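Hey Z.,

So I finally got round to the manganese (II) ion thing we talked about over coffee. Here's the setup:
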Amino acid sequence: MLNRQLCSSKVAHTTKRHLSLHEYRSAQLLDRYGVGVPKGFPAFTPEEAENAAKAVGKEDMVIKAQVLAGGRGKGVFDTGLKGGVKLIGSPYEAKLYAEQMLGHKLITKQTGPQGKPCTGVYIVEREFVRREAYIAILMDRTNQCPMIVASSEGGMDIEGVAAEHPDAIHQTPIPLATGVTDEIANTIAGQLGFSIQAQPAAAQAIKDLYKLFQDKDCTQVEINPLSETTDHRVVAMDAKLGFDDNAAFRQEEIFSWRDLSQEDADEIEAARDGLNFIKLDGTIGCLVNGAGLAMATMDIIKLYGGDPANFLDCGGGATIDAIRHALQLITSERQVTGIFVNIFGGIVRCDIIAKGLISVAQSMDINVPIVARLQGTNVEEAHRLISDSGLKIFSFTDLDDAAQKVCQLSKVVSMAREIDVNVSFELPL
Ligand code: GDP
Ligand code: MN
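And the result:
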């Protein structure tokens, strides 16, 4: 069970199955729902940035890199420029920073070392803040209802707060039947650490955020910081909103705001071919049919001490094209040192899959071991085809045996690579 949770949470973390919006789009939505946001305009060229700053019309402003990742404030650009959030004092400065941000990659603790491209900047008026709080609305699987997470210790490092001062983080499950009542709103408002004057506005903001969460099929609404200004207004200074992809059909406007430049090119490509492909950081590439079996496959890999390199569900059909594309995706990752094909031949017969696998493997230059576990209709014929093919594909019917084998082989190849020894698993033998 623990393994399942491990894998599942990892997928949830890396997945792009929840649409994320840029901050400036999120701010527009929050504004529509009556939540206070700083006045601001997006810009996609340095000239636009200068004009955006003029339109903001204040002396004190902030320029913010529009990159779909948290931790921008503490991020670093690949050019060396420190910080994806900068205080500025003039339209000229907006232009200067925009020149240094646009077209470059921002690396934050959420982007990984390769960073994410900055395709836009957001110029906002600067707020003068007396307190920074944290608030998020998420789906809580355990209680099967939304949950509001609130803390008075908002700002840049909520992960640090969660690790060091877990008491400072309050969690409130929201009953679906009642939603956020006045009582719940007031209690959570009290947890934010704002002054008495700001409490009513905070309670209202919590209700507005919850309404947005429900109306727009959000999977996440995270405001960090939700700030109290020196004149006691409550303002969402940053917003990270996520939306359930299954709701795309009824949230057309929101889904039209998707920015593909922020997503992994391989994953987009895979989705086009009907593959559900999500990169992970392990070493064992997985090719599986069915999402449930794909999850179980990752779990059993973990159970035998391995680490999956990806989640991949190639759909019920498992056609030759799907298998080819899947193997291309898997083998394009350098860290992959073993491939686990786990296919249940129900809709499609095992011998057909085996033929597909053999023909693809023959045409590709694969130099890591492949372990194939086929089960289902015509499984004997499938194993005969694989052993007659002369290819070095390890063929199993038992899931445990297959998983153990692939973990073992992958470990050997990884170790060999580390000490620069060439273990040949080239196909054919
Ligand atoms: P993140 O690092 O990606 O979460 O980006 P944020 O939008 O949260 O910006 C980083 C930090 O900059 C915030 O946590 C604030 O502390 C600070 N910040 C951003 N805008 C303002 C502003 O208008 N006034 C003040 N005082 N701080 C700001
Ligand atoms: Mn933030």
